[in-house]
User: What shape does this take?
Amino acid sequence: MSARPASLAARLLACAWLSAAGVLGAGEPRTSEGFPVPEAGHVFRFPRDHGSHPDFKIEWWYVTGHAYAAGGRRFGFEATFFRSAAPRDGAGAAGSADFGAGQVYLAHMALLDVRTGRFLHEERLNREGWDAGSAVERLAVHNGPWSLEMAPAPGEGMTLSGGIRSEAAFSFHLEPRKPLVEFGDHGYSRKGAAASAASYYLTFPRLELSGTLRYGAETLDVKGEAWMDHEVSSSQLDPGQVGWDWACLQLGDGTEMMCYRMRRADGTVDPFSTLSLVDRQGRVESVGPAGFRWEVLDTWKSPATGAVYPVRVRLTVGARAGKPARVLLLEPLARDQELAGGAGGIPYWEGACRVTDGSGADLGSAFLELTGYAGRLRL
Amino acid sequence: MTDGREHERRADGGARWVILHRIALRHWLGEPRRTALLVLILALGVAVFLSVRLANRAAVASFQNFTDTLTGQSDVLIKAPAGLLPEAVLGELRRGLGTLPVHILPVVEATAAAAPKGGAREAWGRTTYQLLGVDLVSLANLPEARGSGGPLLGRSGEGADGFWSVLRRGPALFVAPALADQAGLKAGSLFPLNIDGAVVELPVAGTIPEPPDGARVPDTLIVLDLPALQSLAGRQGKLDRVEFVVEPGPWAAAVREELPGRLRALGAGRWTVASPGARRQSAETMTRAFRLNLTVLSLVALLVGLYLILQALDGAVVRRRPEIAILRSLGVEERTIRATWIAEAAVLGLAGGILGVCLGWAGAQLAVRLVGQTVNALYFATTVRAAGLAPGEALAAVGLALLSSLAAGWLPAREAARTPPAQVLVRHASDFEGPAFLRNYVLAAGALAAGCVLTQLPPIRLAGGGRFPLAGYAAAFLWIVGGGLLCSLGLPALSRAGRFLSGRYAEARLALSHLARPSGRHRLAVACLLCSVGMTSGMAILVASFESTVRGWVGRSLTADLYVSSDGSQSASSLNGLPEATWRELAAGPGVVDSSVLSAESIEIGGVQTLLSGTQLSAVQRHSDLPWVQRPLDGAVFDPSSNSGLALASESFAERFRKGRGDTVTVPTPSGPRTLRLAGIFADYGNERGSILVERADMARWFDDTHATNVALYLAPGTDADRARSELVARHPGLTVYSNARLRAEILRIFRQTFSITYALEVIGVLVSVVGMALTLSSVLLDRREELATLRALGLTRSEIARSTSAEGLAVTACATAGGILVSLALGWLLIYVINKQSFGWTLGFVRPWGQIAALGLVVVAAGTAVSYGVGLWGAALPADREE
Assistant: This one.
């Protein structure tokens, strides 16, 4: 994997995440860089809000999932499209239509062959223009040969085309099996005490996946399940935060969970950390850090970056009204699922997991995301 | 039986070694200076040949996609068959290729001249920079091992601020490390460049990292972000080419296979698909004829060197004849003696060859600039500075040296082996007769006749439009050989005439008496001198004819008072132009009564590169009297209302594409192919690729480009052209403005430069043959040792003997020079009307530069006489009987 571009992209993203968090003046809140800040009470309009929000500094469409082929073959995949806007400082040229200077697009693709533990990943960075971009009125984002697009209404089915170099290629149809979920306060999700540390957070928690996966010499028909986040923000982290742990769980009982834990420099967990439960009907219930426990059972040290990732996690959801406490074990399907940013860059771990109840019984599948372990998210 | 033979063979081998060691080596080592000279001369011949080969190779190898430095070599590239590609093809390409794992890299290329320093207005020879516009962001996606492009962005500052500033601050330069060192550039320094006639000062963003494969970043390469270069060079929305890099992995080979076909299908004729290797190949074929010509000329020096070996070994045979005779009387067989001499020649050849490789490599560094200049002027941009030593070429050169010294050693070896055992007792001036063909005048006359027949044969056509006049060169060879042999006929005649004239000068009569029955050595010396004098004088005729023709052409076609072009647009590779606003302003300038705007585009017809030029054809008729090869039958082509679909073609074009007046040519343009009928063919010495001339307005429409390559301005009568020029220069510091006289001088200079390397090769040949003649005479004197002793006994002084020898040398060189000049007239005709016409398609008028030829002849004769005098002084001191 090319280390240097990755390092550059990671730096770019990290800078976006860490961009000055102060909110200036009264009236419409803006970051010190002049970007708007997500606000509570925003009313989403679809399909427009599946599309791009270029006024905001960062945005991502984040698909993770599990695909199964005949013969018990199982794969985990990640397909992420990031958008990052140029500083709103009024300086510099805007570039041309084909070679824009206002936005850059970053994309990550990863594939895990569970049987062999082989993990492939690739990164692509492009300026806004002929080879990368996103529509505003609907979901249509592309970067190089990779794309994610929602078919025109009715329906919210999506097509994802991705791959890793000349080694893996997939084309998946993703059909929502549960309605869109708006996390946080009707989609307004706080990440820290700073007013700017917030995002609009929209999720398809359960997408039925079908399509083909070309992997090495094989072409496989696959079926499976995927999860898609769409987040819009201008600053994801609060200045005191060093990284986050995030997980999405798709359980066999038809429910899902999403959990993020914002880690602070002093080793504590930020009070804005959240665990959300999605019931069979798609209703969301959220609890703060007091309502769940995140215990690290095992770590893995990356030979590439030296980062130590807590890749095995016990998640305990506290008892709530009428519901008993619940213990869920996140077991990685392979330990090396690091997207190594390389020398000087900021790598992260994003991996397919299986969920058990601690006694070995299978409860479902999950994706675990661990950032800020290869050095603090600060340059 | 077998044992006996084996024993014999071994004894024989042993004897050979003893003889080689005791006789041959001892001599060579005992005369280090003579040995060194001989080896050196052979080495020189090899070196000339090798250095030209290496320089050729380097000049072609240096033609590269400059993007290779950044991306490693791309897998495929597409290019418009004419003009530029619209940027809109990019999105179409990505959509068309679907999910194929391919990096698509658009490229814009431009050139810029170094900005004038101080008041210097000298544009020629100023550095031309290759500006390469690539998307600095997407470049970062290429695998690291592929090139040094990835880290470019990261180099321009840390973090996201640095990243965004590269995208947004406008044009910034990444320069080669060598340039940064040389010009003291750091990030933030301003570097002035002259682009399309305007000087802009651009900030330096950083240096281009050295590619991981250890290749060197070309010194003149400057990288910019693609849109920045587009706007700098006035090419918004246009691309020079698009390159494709297949992503690595198990399918890469299959994708590489599939890609060209998909691209061709997508393009449907709008672009040509090629591999970067094929592009290099086309550069190779483009210059093949030129390089073959050079190689042939470089062989002349080796040919003369071969003759020298023969002379030197022959001299050694003469000197060692007593020893050989003793060996023969001791029972050493003829074949052993012959083998020893052959071995000796081989040793010499090897030593000369190895030294020649060293010299040739050094010489190549010099030659590479000359070849590079020529290639630059005629074909494409080369950045070549140094020539590497190709092992294959070096081996070939050593092999060539070995082979030629063996060939040259064969005659002396036979001569040595024929020495009778009793020789030591009866020494007489054993005339070296040489092989019979030296005296076979019928054969010589036959060679001349065969040469005449060969001149009528067509050239060999090479791929890519090149032509190689093999038959022409063979004819030249036959004429030189035949002429050389026939010329020695002149020696006895000269002897008779000389005796009549020399009257009471005993030394002269003595000298001439030797020429009454010239020895094989004399004949060879004449042939060799004739060869080099003939070639040099022939080349002088070619250059003079060329110059006078070009002078005439320039006089007729350059009639404007001022010529304006953008700086750095003086070579075939330049991409600089003048924006429409600039040339309109120039044409409307004070004192300008008329103007002629020329734009030129490089196009490809049937895989062969040529030029399409646009100008106001009516102005051509008004102002210049084109030298017609085939005059247009009517004035339609000059009338803008009726000349659409008509064109004029240059003679080189007509030769290259075998077209004539009335034929049609289909040229590719960005707006589709155009079929043109050729209304006339004009002589043009401006480029070897040929050109088609059409109405400029049509061309601007076809190419959607109003840039001009140059503008000619006609001033009102009485206007001071020099003043007008100074005013223009002051107003447009980025423009090169030539007055009529200055431009003529520059054009002639370029033409001379084109021939400089061939000329240099011939001069080396002359030097070598004068040295060869000295060796000949020293052999002759060695053979005449007794005679010399007798002369001394008769009371002749050393200087009288030396005068006699110099008279002999004078006669030989005079005879050879006269013959050489005679042959050169024929060679000149051959070079002009056959070889040059066939290789380049240029018709030249025949001019005889008598002054130059006479000077050459005098120098050769004087040098020959002087050297002979020296040899005579040395010979007069030779002891009569002992070995020297």
